[in-house]
Amino acid sequence: MSNKEASLKGLLLVVLLVSIMLLTKEGVTSLPICSTGSVNCQVSLGELFDRAVKLSHYIHFLSSEMFNEFDEHYGQGRHFIARAVNSCHTSSLTTPEDKEQAQQIHHEALLNLVLGMLRSWNEPLIHLASEVQRIKEAPDTILRKAVEIEEQNKRLLEGMEKIVGRVHSGEVGNEIYSQWEGLPSLQLADEDSRLSAFYNLLHCFHRDSHKIDNYLKLLKCRLIHGSNC
Amino acid sequence: MDLWHLLFTLALVCASDSLSASGEPLRWPQISKCRSPELETFSCYWTDGNIYNLTAPGTIQLLYMKRNDEDWKECPDYITAGENSCYFNTSYTSIWIPYCVKLANKDEVFDEKCFSVDEIVLPDPPVHLNWTLLNTSQTGIHGDIQVRWDPPPTADVQKGWITLEYELQYKEVNETKWKELEPRLSTMVPLYSLKMGRDYEIRVRSRQRTSEKFGEFSEILYVSFSQAGIEFVHCAEDIEFPWFLVVVFGACGLAITVILILLSKQPRLKMLIFPPVPVPKIKGIDPDLLKKGKLDEVNSILASHDNYKTQLYNDDLWVEFIELDIEDPDEKNRVSDTDRLLSEDHLKSHSCLGAKDDDSGRASCCEPDIPETDFSASDTCDAISDIDQFKKVTEKEDLLCLDRKDNDESLPSLANTDTQEPHMNTQSENSQPWPPFADRIDSASPSVHTQLSNQNSLTNTDFYAQVSDITPAGSVVLSPGQKSKVGRAQFDGCTEQNFPMDNAYFCEADVKKCIAVTSHEEDELHVQEQSCNEDAYFTTESLTTTVVNLGASTAETPSSEMPVPDYTSIHIVHSPQGLVLNATALPVPDKEFNMSCGYVSTDQLNKIMP
């Protein structure tokens, strides 16, 4: 009888192990291999860039959808002035405007730029997630996307800081930063004005997320694949 | 000439008026679209409309302005992109910068549009589509192919400046509807399970991101397996697995099988598929009896589970089984127990009695050292009866032996044994001097039948029956008990020669009385009479062996002091002179039977014994 029990226990253990493996297998690719603070652990730069590009692509996808939904829901009958796009808070940052400029800029500078932009958007996204809930009859999809964008942006920021820490030979500069002061505009009493403010913010983020995504893909192809993606 | 000029212009005006009066709507020039194929350049297209500039075909201009510009600038290139277009090359293009373009002539603005270049990306179609065969199925009917293409040449995917996702569509040549695959980033796609006998068409298109529209389709790729020289099986029709037929036939077959099993007489098969539900069963017991039998029978059945107990009890202590319950209300319905006892089938009567009687308190008969006494819930000797015997009995279910047949059987056997007895006894040396007795007994024996029948009618309470002898055959010979009351009447008229014919058995005292009527004192007679008042039995043997010398024996008859017992034991047998009756020493029933006058009942024994 003891043999039987032992074999049964062994089988149970095996089943348990296999199930744990299968359950956590999904999380292996998404969880960081190296936890924060670990010294000896080394994730390859290519792996880091892959994750960063995936995140930035996803963030841009969310922002596009959110912007389109907002425009569909609230943009009917309102003429949101496109020129209001000029008033993005990150416009002060000098970023490459076309491919030649982007190719000419040094990758470290570009990385710093990306990092600065991410940092600049951290706070506005937090406020966006909280303020968008106060919009009258805001659809659930917009609310959920706002929260999701804010989370993913944080993760991308962490990842970028890691990459910058790896790539940078010299000291890491925190100069690139653009302060956002658009919070009062999101809390205006006049609904039309407030909605316009939201529209601007979403449009600005839609554009900036595309910039970040493009820069990172460019850097990835340049640094990891030798400009041969 | 001037006149002709005037007429010509008039005609033109009239024509133009007529044209305008025909009702055709006036369409203004419009910017139809602005697109950037690769995120590096962009171009805008417009339509003319149907305005005809009367004065002069004015030039339509496209003006643009970037975010930081102060003034409108004119389109740098009207030619490269074709007619009614404006092409902005890389130097004029800035991504993520808002542009505004307007269509105007000198006087008026026809249309205006604002956008940023990253929002108007519409890639060119992919190029260089080709396919390769991956594998074919074993039947040769289907095959897998891999389709590959190159990104549009204008898009700089290599450097990662732009990322495109592709959508492939395919269909058979004679079909109308295209099948779509999901958009993916890779430039190669496998197509599975294409029919090798058919030709296919494949096309691909691309877009920058999910929220935008697709670009134009690529050129159609034709897939033809025959041209590639691949061997295949040409099927005229589609062979599909007949699922419907399989299901229907399977269900029918299963139903038929089940019905056949249910209806089949073969118990084995039926039991295999539909095993019977086990019914509670006790070994050795017929379940029908449990349903129909009476409580007494059931008790006896449950208690009777031992085989070899019967053998023991057949030899020993079977005397005790003779005890009968006088309080049984069914007495009248049954034959006298004596008859049953006398029957040869003593075992059967055994069981009859055993089954019926359960309150006699015969705990002593069940020996404790017999291991298999689990079932003896009642401390009766019912457990002793033979199982086999019982099985035979249960078939008849007549445990009370109400069957008349038993009586009939018993009587002749009784007669037989009786006849045997005297003969046997005559053989002994003691019997010689008493042939008349024997004869008389012989003569008496034919009348046994009647007497017994009289017994049946007269007495229903035969408590005890003395066992006189065991025949060699193994049957028990009993001396039927006869109430002295019955016989006494006849005894009174007893003369020397006139033996009462009613009674085959005589009490010693009675015999003495009859033989020597006046020989004894009155008290003796009285005593003897008294002794004969009770159920007095006298064995034939003892009768024969008793000597006339009754005087000696009478002296030893039990004194009148003691309560008169039914039976008097014989102390000494002075054969052939006579018997010496033991007054005090009463026989304990054991294996060897004393030739006693009678049998002492247990009650009397208890009284007598000190």
From TrEMBL, chain A:
CDD domains: prolactin_like. This is Prolactin. Residues 1-30 form the signal peptide. One of its GO terms (molecular function) is hormone activity. The keyword Ribonucleoprotein does not apply. One of its GO terms (biological process) is positive regulation of cell population proliferation. One of its GO terms (cellular component) is extracellular space. Belongs to the somatotropin/prolactin family. It is found in: Secreted. Its main location: secreted. The keyword Disulfide bond applies. Keywords: Disulfide bond, Hormone, Secreted, Signal.
TrEMBL record, chain B:
CDD domains: FN3 (cd00063). Belongs to the type I cytokine receptor family. Type 1 subfamily. Residues 413-432, 444-453 have a biased composition (Polar residues). PANTHER family: CYTOKINE RECEPTOR, INTERLEUKIN 5 RECEPTOR SUBUNIT ALPHA. It is a single-pass type I membrane protein. Pfam families: EpoR_lig-bind, fn3, GHBP. InterPro entries: FN3_dom (IPR003961), FN3_sf (IPR036116), GHBP (IPR025871), Growth/epo_recpt_lig-bind (IPR015152), Ig-like_fold (IPR013783), Long_hematopoietin_rcpt_CS (IPR003528). It is found in: Cell membrane; Secreted. Residues 125-228 form the Fibronectin type-III domain. Keywords: Cell membrane, Disulfide bond, Endocytosis, Glycoprotein, Membrane, Phosphoprotein, Receptor, Secreted, Signal, Transmembrane, Transmembrane helix. Residues 1-23 form the signal peptide. The chain crosses the membrane at residues 241-263. GO terms for biological process: endocytosis. One of its GO terms (molecular function) is cytokine receptor activity. Residues 407-453 are annotated as: Disordered. This is Growth hormone receptor. GO terms for cellular component: external side of plasma membrane; extracellular region.
